[in-house]
Amino acid sequence: MGERAEGEGRAQDEGGRTARPPGERGRTAISDRVVARIVAKAAEETAGSGGLDRSVLGVGLPGRRAARTDVRVHGQIVTAKVALSVAYPMPVRDVAQRVRDGVRARVEALTGLTVRQVDIDVAELERPGGRTVS
């Protein structure tokens, strides 16, 4: 009595194999680059915000690029900076807050990391017709 057979009390997967508890499975590392892509996508999906004009040496090029992001992951804590455009005449403060909330929710839901801070830099105002004001 008191003896346990190997695997007793552990969950089994579909193949009938014994699954190890989460603490024994190893660890998952999520790079800053992956989190930066999640941040850029979440910012892009927020109504009223958008990417930035493309340019080389100050000369404008056709098309737009994604919002510029700078993300740091320290253990389980994320800090992010996002440079983006806001569609004119949308209220800049409201758009920035929606981006902040969306980024925080998306990163935490997809990675399980805690977002401590999201700084927003409104680098451009996008006028109707695609013209921008820097």
From TrEMBL:
InterPro entries: Asp23. Pfam families: Asp23 (PF03780). Residues 1-31 are annotated as: Disordered. It comes from the Bacteria. Residues 1-27 have a biased composition (Basic and acidic residues). Belongs to the asp23 family. This is Asp23/Gls24 family envelope stress response protein. It comes from Actinomadura nitritigenes.
